[in-house]
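User: Please check token order:
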Amino acid sequence: MFKKILISYAFALSFISFIFSTGVLLKMNRLHRNSKIQYVMYIGTNDKDTYTQIIPTETAKEIVNNTCLNYFDGYTIQDARGVWKDEAGKTTGENSIICYFDDADASKIHAAADEIIKKLNQSTILIEKNVIQMEYYTGDKKK
């Protein structure tokens, strides 16, 4: 009798587990469908050799914008301020430019970054690669 109860209990748990995992898998599949890769470039404006800003921010932004237009159909560009401690422990700040690229090709990201590094005389550009959930919302169609 105890063995039958144990088998029934195990079967019920297996069935509940199956139902739960199927629902979770379906939800994960829906989320995956809307997943896209977003690259984010963080571009400083201080010259790598002098540690000061030689190119004015608006000019640097034009350089970044014109370079990105050669590689991408669309992106978002934003002004920022970056702060860090250098090798000597000195706090340094600089005007920065952030660019967001949704569903872009990695080789184009790196090619654009290579150009920007040369044009703005940078040591590096920080590039983030993020998996995001996104949609292009066009409004409520019911109204």
